[in-house]
Amino acid sequence: MLAAAGAVCGAVEKEPLYLDRTQLVDVRIKDLISRMTPEEKMQELAGKAGGPGELRLKIPPFNTTEAVHGYMSGIGATIFPHSIAMASSWNEKLMLEMADTIAAEMVAANAQQAWSPLMDVARDPRWGRMEETYGEDTYLVTRMGVAFIKGLQRHNLIATPKHFAAHGAPQGGRDSNDVGYSERVMREYYLPSFRAAFLEAGAMATMSAYSTWFDAPAVSSEYLLKGILREEWGFQGFIVSDCTSIAHLTYKHYVAADYVDAARLALKAGVSYNCGEVYAREDVIQAVADGRIPMADVDYAVSRTIRAKFLTNLFEAPRAKLLKEGGKDWNSPKHSAVALDAARQSLILLKNKDSLLPLSKNIKSIAIIGENAKTQQLGDYSAKPLEGQLVSILDGVKKTVGPDVIVRYAEGYDHKFPSAFMGISKAVKAARASDVAIVVVGDLGDITSGEGHDRADLDLPRGQKELVKAIYKTGTPVVLIIVSGRPYTIEWEADNIKAIIQTFYPGQEGGTAAAEVLFGDYNPAGRLPVTYPRYAGQLPLNYNPKPSGRGYKYINMDASPRYRFGHGLSYTRFRYSNLKVSPEKTADGLVTVSADIENIGGRDGDEVAQLYVTDMLATVDTPVSQLMGFSRVNIKAGEKATVAFSLNAYQLSLLDRNMDRVLEPGKFKVMVGGVSPWAQPEDRFKDRIGYSGPEEGVVGEFEATERIAANFEYSLAAPQTAKAGEPFEVIVKVNNKGRMTDVGEVKLFADGAVAGVKRFEVAPGKPKSLTFAVALKAAGEIQLTAVGKSGLAKQTIKVIQ
Q1: For the whole prediction, is pTM greater than 0.70?
Q2: With contact defined as beta carbons under 8 Å apart, do 118 and 485 qualify?
Q3: Are both 610 and 596 inside the same structural domain?
């Protein structure tokens, strides 16, 4: 091991600069790093709490946890609906409230950082981690994720959106595979949610992905982690590696010769915190000490974690040990009420033929059938519940109907004994003796869903389809409830079962919420955040494809989904009218869209109004429709409400053939309704896409009359003279004289040779300065040239010996 820290730093000062909170953060960071040994720096990056650096220099550790749907490290902490269920609520305010509640329980537990939320756009339901995401649409993922981050971080906590980037769409739905996408696809679908996480929500950390992009593992991708994340978006926080992913550079990706090489690559890309053991290895620490791993890269990585600790006042108020039990207000009545409201708002009524639901509470007998009726499924990254904390569907129904109703429970099929179908006969007997059968199917915990549980098909787990068919044959009316982390292919069930409810993973209060919907105490209004396919062979199947050059069908399979993105029924009906677009012709890309919604049924209820836009003619392929707004509104029976949405030029823009962001002049179709618009994907797809009538939605149009784009100008500032071999600073200032925010790249040339490359994103009227460190060996008159998108700048300097 290396020399003791005290021998290196000399006498201990009474008040080092880094402990003086009146000093600027950058001054404190520089002072602290100057006092740290290589070993202490690497222990900081390895998260080794209680290491010698922390004891000697009083560096507080982060207390880190997972919190995608509750404080995971706390036994008995409130368990909210999983992310895919929260997305089904289509309610940003609800997400904010949930994040606030999780934050309160984290604070009570002395937690400082949450490795949450997932900002992955999940466009393949075969992927096992879909349950942790907010679904398939970039805009919906963005709005729900931004709300989560804001709710968490306003409690002086650190959110860590993950997995950067495109982890949610691996090839074939296989976790952590090469995503294989072009830069265009990445910037259109998979990067915008993260951009908003940092630029809008101000997330202080992020976690890199396991997967690869452009043949570089994400944890070592300088283009992704430096060029886009730091240079374009100005991210000042710290990057966490997904667990063991730095080690994967050796024995999985084969891009690093050994662990020292792996650490070098990750540090060069700017990865600070290593979830794993690579940074803590003695051979890696020694490589830092003897210069084989550049100290500048190590210091940069350390500065990112230290900055976050200063900004959250962790040095002044270090956290006690992470609490695992007995936290204040964990699962308090107030917090469990938030979980119940979230569960209610997330439930989706997929089908309700002949108004089978809601059921009457005066019904004489009910059969509750299925393993998942008695066992509440929670999904991955859930806290361990206390006894009695979870309300199953069986519990919820019993409490709702009262003691006079006969409730018969039968397990049906037991997945623990896959050869035993004997339980189905008992379930059939219970159904025949009852007025209605509620059959609960879906996932079986981490056996069928979650991290590392990708599927080649989307069939219901073994035995469940047979169980549903057997109950159906009894002639007793059947209500099917699906508890799962992803959509399943339910063609037979959708054709034959009259009422179907999708709960996804509804959290600890899911049974109460399901019972309230079953018996009409709550009018459901959840909407699908993902397209429900008919067969796995249709995948990829999303609501917003780009028009094809040919056909969309297989010869033996329909092109349509079973249930469209945004679909969900209610116990009342709504009618849309009076669509207004103002102005009808826009020169600046600013548009307001409004529509009236009337509740024409007999019950009060929520409607989720969804705004979709189609660019009718463009220089590149654009999606047939794109979600650009949503609003969940409560409307009383017989009354009317107006929803309004605002659009801007950036939302309406595209990436043209040169990858420039542009709002092109032309017509846009605008659609406001209760589900994503639809047309059979054939010729004239964009012309035909829309709604079947006013109960689905209304359609209009507007026109953009002017081209709106960025216009970058460059200036270069360097010293008049420089000494050969000694580094000096060159500042390239980028000014956007146009009307569109865009990204670009500046290459700095010194006497014709590339001296540096930097990425940038610049909004109109907001210049950005890019600093290059340059060292020139040869003496003489040297020309510096900065070359970027649409321009360049030059300056000649004199280099002396």
Answers
A1: yes
A2: no
A3: yes
